Automatic annotation (TrEMBL):
This is Uncharacterized protein. It comes from Gimesia maris. It comes from the Bacteria.
Length: 76
């Protein structure tokens, strides 16, 4: 029964919160000298960004690719 509760419960993350955290991580990355630490921070920043924006980005990429293919076939 606890598995059912875990599947039904989820945390809603707002784009405003993600934007705020990403902006702070960007500032932290700029002030970090260590390349290793910067790499970890950039990875974390990307993971946080995609919590909200991943689906929209994939759909946008698909639309852009589809438009690009249509444009190429019309040009030929």
């Amino acid at each position: 029964m606890s598995e059912e509760n875990n599947q039904e419960e989820y945390e809603e993350i707002t784009s405003e919160e993600v934007d705020r955290v990403v902006a702070r991580l960007e500032a932290l990355i700029e002030s970090t000298d260590s390349e290793n630490i910067r790499s970890y921070l950039e990875e974390a920043m990307n993971e946080i960004y995609y919590l909200v924006y991943e689906e929209g980005e994939e759909e946008l990429d698909s639309e852009v690719e589809a438009c690009g293919e249509d444009d190429l076939s019309e040009a030929a």
